[in-house]
């Protein structure tokens, strides 16, 4: 028997590969199919089942394409309905994979079709439970993503309480909990950076599994402090219930090389968005195509694409550091449903400037210069683009909060004729924000290199730390 956790850092997502005696199953697959096909081929195994814990909101899952290529059965829990053929498993139903079984536990609450899967080995022992977004390490799934007119988040939280108490917490304490997400995902609010743990330890350390917690206490706890989910979540749920453009077709179209004149012509069309995926250093040193947004591939690329690009059907062309990563870039766009990538700048920025085309540049300040200019009053509009919770816990005195998450909703507050100096925690989010400022007509925008982490090492006045738990 083989069980592998497949962690994707950009999405803080875990898929799972299970193989036993020539048969395999995938739990919560990503959009791309090749990794799973290669694993099965290496093991000389047939992919028999594709299990989904629920309809995901934060990424587009790959069950349909994978089933088309393998003939595997797609299994959801009760209540799931999709445009493609699925099998609705029953609570307690078992599915044979070689010498082992997966037992479906219907665990509604995060969504109503949410299900967990217990692995039962050939000796009848239960070494693993795959909990999806029902139970995370250190947290539980948020109960507000599947709210309908006849179902409130309090209703869903109540179902989640019952699922945890009546299904998950009755399992052996030594069973390993394998969730679908870890720290950094927007599907919970307090997830650990650990990607697995024993259930017994979670009972001791996870606030939501406290033995003496009442249902009302649980509901209050899990519904307090929830921020609005990223705007792309409903689109991804819809896509996960639908038959989408095949990943192979998306990759073929999106990896089209575009020479600089063609790229320039397309970039000037109102319905086309340019995304610069290079490193922070490359972006600031060489400049970018006028109007481009910076969303670096080496940060939380896919979630920021989904959070900031409003139209899921947006036409996108992009700039890459390395043409060997073009396939990866298109894949990562598609993971959150942005399938309308049309190609990349062939030869990169060097080829662009060799053709005599202009570039836009974002100004930058060192943390020391920022602290000095803040002290002497020469910085007109300093803004901290971190999340509100980060800002409230600790920030530079005299700097207002302008979270990147809500930049479009709040952009009316920005005067394009003024000068703005932006910082985040380390410099990634502030460059994204600065690029959007620039693309929207703010000519004088500067980024603080190294962000708040390095500003704290200067003489800049820092607010006293306030424990975030006291802010709820």
From TrEMBL:
Keywords: Metal-binding. The keyword Metal-binding applies. The keyword Metal-binding applies. Residues 268-361, 383-464 form the Rhodanese domain. This is Rhodanese-like domain-containing protein. The lineage of its organism: Bacteria, Pseudomonadati, Bacteroidota, Flavobacteriia, Flavobacteriales.
């Amino acid at each position: 028997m083989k069980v592998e956790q497949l962690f994707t850092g950009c999405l803080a997502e875990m898929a799972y590969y299970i193989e036993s005696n020539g048969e395999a199953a995938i739990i919560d697959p990503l959009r791309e199919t090749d990794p799973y096909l290669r694993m099965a081929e290496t093991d000389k195994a047939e992919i028999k089942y594709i299990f989904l814990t629920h309809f995901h909101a934060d990424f587009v899952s790959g069950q349909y394409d994978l089933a088309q290529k393998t003939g595997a059965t797609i299994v959801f829990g009760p209540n799931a309905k999709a445009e493609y053929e699925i099998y609705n498993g029953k609570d307690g139903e078992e599915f044979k994979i070689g010498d082992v079984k997966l037992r479906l536990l219907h665990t509604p609450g995060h969504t109503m079709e949410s299900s967990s899967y217990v692995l039962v080995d050939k000796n009848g022992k239960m070494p693993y439970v795959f909990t999806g977004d029902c139970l995370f390490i250190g947290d539980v799934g948020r109960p507000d993503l599947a709210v309908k007119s006849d179902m409130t988040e309090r209703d869903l939280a109540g179902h989640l309480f019952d699922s945890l108490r009546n299904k998950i917490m009755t399992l052996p304490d030594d069973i390993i909990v394998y969730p679908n997400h870890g720290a950094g995902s927007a599907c919970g609010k307090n997830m650990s950076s650990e990607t697995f743990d024993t259930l017994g330890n979670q009972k001791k350390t996870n606030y939501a599994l406290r033995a003496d917690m009442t249902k009302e206490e649980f509901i209050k706890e899990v519904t307090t402090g929830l921020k609005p989910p990223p705007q792309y979540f409903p689109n991804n749920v819809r896509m996960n219930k639908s038959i989408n453009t095949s990943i192979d077709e998306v990759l073929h179209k999106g990896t089209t090389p575009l020479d600089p004149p063609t790229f320039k012509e397309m970039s000037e069309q109102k319905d086309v968005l340019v995304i610069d995926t290079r490193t922070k250093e490359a972006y600031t040193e060489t400049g970018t195509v006028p109007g481009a947004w910076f969303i670096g591939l080496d940060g939380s690329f896919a979630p920021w694409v989904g959070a900031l690009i409003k139209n899921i059907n947006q036409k996108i062309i992009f700039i890459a550091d390395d043409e060997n990563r073009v396939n990866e870039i298109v894949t990562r766009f598609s993971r959150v449903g942005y399938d309308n990538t049309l190609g990349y700048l062939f030869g990169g920025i060097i080829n662009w400037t060799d053709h005599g085309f202009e570039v836009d540049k974002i100004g930058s300040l060192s943390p020391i210069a920022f602290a000095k200019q803040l002290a002497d009053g020469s910085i007109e509009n300093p803004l901290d683009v971190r999340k509100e919770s980060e800002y409230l816990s600790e920030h530079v005195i005299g700097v207002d909060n302008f979270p990147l998450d809500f930049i479009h909703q709040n952009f009316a507050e920005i005067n394009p004729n003024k000068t703005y100096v932006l910082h985040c925690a380390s410099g990634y989010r502030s460059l994204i924000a600065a690029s959007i400022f620039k693309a929207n007509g703010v000519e004088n925008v500067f980024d603080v290199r190294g962000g708040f982490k390095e500003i704290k090492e200067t003489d800049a006045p820092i607010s006293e730390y306030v424990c975030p738990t006291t802010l709820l």
